[in-house]
Every structure is written in structure tokens, then in C-alpha cells.
Fold each of these.
Amino acid sequence: MAEPKQNPLMEKIVSLCKRRGFVFQSSEIYGGINGFWDYGPLGAELKRNVKELWWNTMTRSRDDVAGLEATIIMAPEIWKASGHVATFSDPMIDCKTCKGRFRADQISEIPCPQKPSKCVGECHGEKTEARAFNLMFQTYVGPVQDDSAIAYLRPETAQAIFAQFKNVLETSRQKVPFGIAQVGKAFRNEVTPRNFTFRSREFEQMELEFFIKPDEVIEAIYGTVAVRTPNSQLLSPQPNWGWQAWHHYWVEERVRFYEGIGLSRETLGFHHQTPAELAHYARACTDILFKFPFSKKDADGNVTGDELEGIAARSDFDLSQHQRFSGKPMGVFDEELRAAWAKLPKEKQDDLWKRYYDHRKNYLTKSAKPDETPEQISLQATEDANGLAKGQYIPHVIEPSAGVDRLILALIANAYSEVTKTDDKGKSETTVVMKFHPRVAPIKVGVFPLLKNKPELVAKAQAVYELLRPHLKAVYDDGGSIGKRYARQDEAGTPFCVTIDFDTLGEKPELLDTVTIRHRDDGKQERLNISELLDFLLSKIRG
RNA sequence: GCGGGCGUAGUUCAAUGGUAGAACGGCAGUCUUCCAAACUGCACACGAGGGUUCGAUUCCCUUCGCCCGCUCCA
């Protein structure tokens, strides 16, 4: 009666997550709630490690990124400016006959999929009533639940960064180019949560908005914009980088991050969005994919993977939107630009002015509110271009936006491996080893006495455990046999296990105060002095 | 949201219109001088609600959840 195994590996991973305490279904005792997942003891450690590594990599180890922690509920105008209210609230009609779903305002234009000679509104399929599809979670601020109190749980963390751009700029002593990073929860009322935690309704994002000068500004100051050549590595940022170089740089930075936590390039995939896929304001978007067990094959039979992170070049769209909707200036003043502009030959000034004008006019036209006339738009674009000559511009942005939960799932899938051992009697047994990179492993070290019923061993093992635990996540285990404890830690993905034996106590005097340290992935042991233990572990975990 | 499949200990699986079993795992203990040893004991399940029935985990309905396909994917 068992259901057919559609994806045995994925099912084993889900089962392990429950069994060992990586991931539980939310509200499980009440039957669960679709699209929501909890992290158990091991998952919580794993997730914390990943977020901390991202934060350290993206902010603390860089001079040019500042952090932010904004609220989940913000002024609803934010989501009007970002476009989320408009794009999320189209009334939709389902056809029960052909299973199609159509925008209610387009049923008299779209041809029926089954009878293309007729439009959806005319065909005989049985239709549902028009229903509003808003993928943002709604709530009310304050006790009165009327329309004026409607607010939304943020569908992405990014907008808070744009909304607080000027405050961060003024308080962080940063200047463009610089970034603002944030880690936090976001909520989307997904139509179909799928693939375990991959698409959840409540999830966590790690987002960087990296603000850069428009190419026209780079050109005004440095004469030319540095162009990416096939061989250029673009490893360290240069003042004359334009958006392409920065975009390429951040893709590489992010790939290096994934490699640094154990996801090799072979496990990753890339998708460069085509012009048709790109939002109208975006210039490029590169998705970094991971080849999940549930990832599908493309037309050529290759697994490309599913999205972990998108690195988008979003032009100056976001800050421009918030400038228009809030009425507050979102531009920056650049002394260098003003000084450089004055020294430019007239033709160059005119050329840059025209290009900036065209860009602004294009944006303003596409984002125009219904009551804005072409004349007003031209006037605003002229004003914007004139600002350039005075050293003013709206920064462009490169947005590396990663999903924490997707990354956790990728790390779990990547770590999962099975080892089959056959004993002397020919009995074989398969065990699971979670090969997490030591940097992300939920537990860094297990400490065991070789035998439980020898008080000297137990006391010494507990002393070693107390020595390590202030510095890293350690566990003490004296249950069962030593082999069982190793196996337990293998399933948790603990990279190192330390065992206190009789030599530690001085049975061989030359080995007094040494312990065995056992490596998860090959089972090999080495002997270390207790005094060297902490440094050894820290070097493996931080190195 | 539509269609299909499926819900039994923590996990993997049995059985049954008449009070649910196993293995592994967990906990406690004995033992054990390095890779899930052995032994003893303990705890733990029919997703929820309603209906049919003398009696439902089993049959029916609803609901919730999981998987697959469609749809959606800012």
C-alpha cells in the first residue's frame, strides 16, 4: 500500500531531517500548516552558522558594506512603490474545464487554450468567480480592522534597505560604491509550496543591495568604464568599474562563498536571464542554482538546478521609485563628479547629459502614474540630467539576494551520503554520513570517554568537554559503545570526535594527556595533546 | 486553485469490522580497551472531525498534511 517512491533520495533526506532534528513540520501536533517549517536543534545550529558566515563575509570582513535590521511590517506605501501591491492583486478566474487560470480583466482577449477560435470569456468551460490573488500576507495595524489599517508582511527584505538608504548613508560614513546588507524573514503566500522547505510561505533571506555610480558618472570622472574581458578576474574592486564589472564581481564573490561552505562548482548551476525574462528596469540577472535531488532535467537532459540566489543589476529603479512615491530625494551628491564635470569638453558633457537624460526618461515613462503627462516626464528627465552636471545622481544597485532556507536544504542534500560496511560475518549495514563542511556543521566536536564504567575516563572526558564548549558547539556522549557514538555523530555531520582512552590517563606515560581525534569523512584518527586540541579544532572550523 | 496518489510508534514497515505488531532508533541499567557488539527493562502510533455500525485504525463523507502533475513563481 506504500506509495510509489517518486524521489527516494529526497524522501530519505526528509526522513533524516525529522529523525535527527534538522527540520520539523510547523504545528505538527495540529496536523501541520502548508508551507511552514521549523528547524530542530541541529537545523537551528546549521542555519545560525550559515547566517553568521554570510554576515561576516558580507559585512564585517569588508569596509564597504554596512548592516541593517529592519521591521517585517512597514508602511504599506513601500509596497506600492516597489510594485508588489499592483502585481500581486490581479483578480484571477479559473476554468474548471480546461484547468487554465486567467486574469479576469483579460478573458475577452486571451484565446481559450482548448478552442483558440474563441476567447476565454466566450468558451463553454465552467468558470469560477473572479478571485483576488494577492501573494502578500495581509494584516491590520492597530485594533480597528478597516482598509485604512491594512499592512503587509514584507515579501522581501530588500525594500527596507532602499527605504533606509539615506539614513544608512548618513550614519555609516560610507559613500558610493557601498552596500547595505540584511538578513531576515520574508513572507509570500505562495500558490503552491513545494519541495520540502525549498518553496515556503515564511522564509529567510540574506540580501545585499550594493549601490554603485551610474556608468555616465564613471565615465565623467574616469574617462572610460572598465569593461569585463574574458580573461579579467575582477577580483578586487576598482573605482572605474561600471555596473557590468560589479555585477560580474558579485556573482564571483557569491560563488566563492558557496565553495567556501562546501558547495563545489560542479554542484552549482547558472542561469543568465534572457532579455525577455528580465524585469523592464533590470539590466542583467544571474541566478546561482543548486542541483537538488528534485531538480528537473532540461531539454538536453542536463540537470541545471534550482535557484539559491539571484544577482540582479537593477539600475536605479528602486531608489527612483521611492523618491517618486515618498517625495524624498534619494540621490547622492558627489564632489568628485562635480569637479570632473567642469573639466569635461562640451561634446563629452552633452553626450553624457543626453545618455543620462534618455535613461531617466525611459524609466519615468515606463513607471509613469496615469496622471503624468509626457511633458512632465520630459521636464523631470531634464532636471535629473541637469543634476548630473552639479554632481547629483541616483545610485544604481547590484542585488545579490539569497534564500537561507534553500541554502540549508542544499547543504543538507549536498552533505548526505551513505556508507555501506560489511562486517566479518558478511552482514552489511548502511549508515548515513552528513559531510558538512566544518564551518557550517551544527556540532563541531563530540567528546567521549572510551568506556562509561571507568570513572577516571568519564571525569577526564568531561573535563575536555568543559574545556572546548565555551569556544565551539560540542557534545558529550557516553551512551552505548564507542562505535555507536561515532555513528550518531556521523548522522549529525559532526566533523571531529575526540576520545579519551587509557593512554590519556598515562597507561603509556609518553601519551599522557593526549587524545584521539577521529575524522568523520575517512574515519582516520590522529593523536593530539589536549593542550593543542582547541587550536586544532578552531583552525579547521575557521580555516 | 485543479487533477491523481498517500496518511499506523521518532524512522522504515506489518496486520485487522472485535481493544494494533516488528525492526531500527530513544531512555535506563549490566557489560564493553576505538567505528551502530550483546543482554535486561521502559516509553512511544492508527493525522483531525463527522457518519454508517452493537462495535471503525479498517467502510463512507469532510477537513488537514505529504508526494506527483498542471498552474503560479515579483
Amino acid sequence: MVLARVILGLLDLSPMTGYEVKRHCDTTIKYFWQADKAQIYRTLSQLTADGLAAVETAPGVGGPARQVHHITERGREVLNDWLTSKLERQPERDAFLARLFFSGGLPESQVEELLAARRADAESLLAELEEMRRSLPDPPDRRARLRLATLDYGIAQVRTELDWLADV
Amino acid sequence: MVLARVILGLLDLSPMTGYEVKRHCDTTIKYFWQADKAQIYRTLSQLTADGLAAVETAPGVGGPARQVHHITERGREVLNDWLTSKLERQPERDAFLARLFFSGGLPESQVEELLAARRADAESLLAELEEMRRSLPDPPDRRARLRLATLDYGIAQVRTELDWLADV
DNA sequence: GCTAACTAGTAGACTTGTCCACTACTCCAG
DNA sequence: CTGGAGTAGTGGACAAGTCTACTAGTTAGC
């Protein structure tokens, strides 16, 4: 599954605990990958069992002991395989579009409410993404450039959404 | 879950069999909702068990008997509740962005391959959506207008993606 | 001294979705 | 007259993800 690869990707950037993986899913990579805590820990032990990651228990600094996960050589191979393998578009699933599509029976005002709510959402998301963008280092290295690019993708999509909302 | 509402939405447009629901998921609503056949049939019987849909067995015209599902009054209520309830953005999960994000260790050429593959994908998707758009009735009624709008959303997003790809 | 917040991780039930194989009927082409 | 494509539906195993609740340590505020 993809979550396993995403976690490998994170571990490749730097060794970390499940807790830190979760934090990344809630912050840095939130705009393209979110995951449940329980699922993260389970995937992490799966990776360890498969020899793609290795654990080391470190004493906690101001807190409980930490199980730091490192990526292994095998893990790096698997990650690379994934990154270079053929990618097919995943099945689209957009609950907002679904609602809009089926809103034909609703009074005009309620459709507008739906759109207004979506606009508010999109605006706050845009603000968040732009804030994130500002916080990125200015003379970007290779990795940061890719990170910037994915972020720009998100920003562009939300902007398009706002334009579209204005049109409808 | 959302699939149940989507199916209710389809049944609200016209009564249909599980097979036809599946066909919609593969054609008309494919660009915002895809679903597995087995899941559709299971959801359909769940809807029936909950009294949101009712089944009527009709003789098959050139084929096996058809179990036509209708939406019930209760079903219509539930659908309306869903359409007007507060909507929160669902967790984003984009495997392509994930790959790109973690491609920092790859040689330049492979990143470009990834982008090229994505471009090809986006182009064929755009062609498909535009084809779909052309096939829509020209003097649109209310429902068709909404359908057009959701489709335009998809088209706009893919166009943005292509622009972004050209930029990167 | 108590409590809340943050860090760190575990356990189990449950839901949703996917995959695969199967039955069964009709029509059409070769 | 046989096989494939399209229609219509079922069953079971399994994978992936969610939700809730729990333990346990540290730090900081009241």
C-alpha cells in the first residue's frame, strides 16, 4: 500500500518515531497524505517485520522512551522501486462533487450555501498552504524544490477551485 | 458512508439495477466517484434493509431477471439530509504528489520521466472529460447544469495540472 | 499537590473497499 | 453449435483504514 511507501520516504529523510511520522502527516505532508495514528504504528511494525526498517530504542528526552525507526538498505531499494514504477491514476473520489452533482432537487439557495461553504473551506486551505510556502527555505536545494513543487500544485488546484466557484 | 449516498442520488434520478449503478460509476460519474461491483451490490442491499430503497424484480429483456431498486420516501429524506449537511474536506491522499515529494534522491532524468508519465495521463483524462462534455445536451436544464459544473470542475483541475506540469 | 498538555505507544472492534471466482441467461458471429 | 461478449448477481477471503479507549512518562501552571 501507499502508506508504507510514504513512511519509508519519511524515514529516508531522517529516522523517526511513529509519533513523528504522525506529526508529519498532520503538518508537512498533510496536503497530500493523511493517516490514522493506529495505522501508522501498524505499518511501521510491518515495515520492521519485512526488514525495510529497523528500530532502535532511545531514551526519551522529557518524555517516555522513543522507538526510533531507520530505513534499511532493503527499504531504500523498495522505496526506489516504488518511485520509479509505473504509476496509474488512482480512482477519483470527491464527496463535494458528488453532492453538487445530486443537488438538482434542492432549492437554489441551498446549492448556494453548499458552494459558499466550499469557498470558505478553500480559502482557509489556501491561506494554510501559502503560509506553509512562506515558511519554506528561500535558497532551495533539490529536495526543497520538489517539496515546493508539490506545494505549488496544491496551491494551484485550490486557486483553480476558487476561480471555478466564482464562475458557477 | 458516501457510496450509499451516491447510490441514493443515482436512484433518485431513476430506478436502476446494481449493474446499472456500476455502469454509472464507470462512465457518467467516473470522474468523481468510482466503486467496486461487489461493494455496490452490498451497499444496495444495505439500503434496502434500511428501508431507504425498495427492490422490484423485473423480467430481463434479453438477459437475466433484473432487480430494480427504487428510492423510498425515507431514502429521499436521508439523501436530502446529506446534501444539506455540513461538509468537511476529506483527507487528501495523492499518490502522485507523494512520489514526487520523495523523489529528491532520484536522478533528474527519472523525475522527468515521472512528470512525463503524469502529463500523458492528464492529457488522456482531459480528452476524455472534454469528450464527455461535448456529449452533454446543449440547452441544459437544472440537473444538466450541475452536471456540467462538476464536469467543468474536473476539466479546470486537469488543465491546471497540465499548466503546473509545464512549469515544473 | 492536582491537572492539563505534550510525548509515545498499544489493543481491539469495526467499517469500507478490493479481488477473485463463480452462476446464469441471451444474443451474435463464425 | 460453440464460444465470446454483454447483462445481472452472489460469496468469501482479505487488505486497509477508522474509532475509541487505554497506559505511561514529563513539564508547566494554578
